[in-house]
Amino acid sequence: MSDTTTSHLQAARTALDRCQDLLGDESPEWAELYAALHSAQRAIAIAEYASELAVTRPPVEEVEVEAEVALAAEPVAPAHVEPPPLEVEAAEETIEDPAPLPAAGASLAERLSEQRLESLKNSLSINNRVRFASLLTDGDVPALLTLCDALEASDNFEAAQILILETAGDVDWGDEENGGGEFLSLVRRLFATA
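Above: the chain's sequence. Below: its structure in token form.
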């Protein structure tokens, strides 16, 4: 190891020892502890960096220039010999691609949104009651609740759809903002199989 690497490691050990001393106190000074930890981390990082740079390379061979050549009219530069490339050992084991993970399946929210409803009326929040009432029954919440009772008594989803169309009149079922599609999905859940 080089002298700078050794000195940085020494500084790191000293800073870590100081941290241990501070933690041993009943009420350590946190600012001083933080500064000592920061100093130790910095010294360790510098020492690791310096040790990575200290790769041992074979010395460059110098070529002796004969006296006769040195007296020639043109100066001759000494030949520079490149060091042989460092050999990297090949890994003995080959890394295989991990097997693909199985498909996750439906999320909890998706499974809950497909779960059968026992009661349409009980599943509606106050805000949804007002919103769906304004959409389907001209703002009449008791009329909406009566419609919910009738939908729950329907034999199947198709019969429930006919009842909704007879009651609702002109509703844009494709508009997601007005809530028509959301109401239909709730009605569909009344008839979902468990």
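Residues 22 and 32 are 8 Å apart (CA to CA).
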